[in-house]
Amino acid sequence: MSSQHPAPADQNPRGPLDAAVLTRRMAEGDEMAYRIFYDDYFDRLWRYLLVVTAGNEDEARESLQATLVRVTRHIKLFRNEDSFWSWLTVLARTALADEKRKRRRYLSFLDRFTQHANIEFHRSTGNHADERLQILLEQKVASLPPDEQELIEQKYFARRAVLEIAGELQTTEKAVESKLSRIRRKLKDAVLAELNNESRG
User: 80 and 39, same structural domain?
Assistant: First the structure.
């Protein structure tokens, strides 16, 4: 007869857990509970988001990652599976809506930047597609220092006035405009240099 005893159901490190046990353990920061949640719900949320995005895998993927982050931040106790799943779908739909808004703001900025760079862009790189320019610009924005990324976000994504930004930073409008100009020039030079390298390759 074995001397080992089976673990209680709510402490079993493998297999599904009922929603009340799972969410309680997740709220307590139990790493194994999060692994079980991931195993049980990742594919299910992925399929759900594929349906609500009409099969758009990029949107579904971005929204799924945002949903999982929100689960980690806001997890609470749920008494049953139905209420837990309902909460997860609300998080997923909200994440999708937020990602769409963020993407629209970002694409709006990319379009405005592209309009300023188009003449030199086409002259120096020939038949490169605008989509490639946008991809490179997105990469270059992501590589900016945090303070420069924040300034770009506030000016072009949140569409805040320079006067408002200057007041928050306790500086002058002229200083903010000057910094924005330097950032735009740096981005443009970095993007065009990359495109020129590609055209020579």
Answer: yes
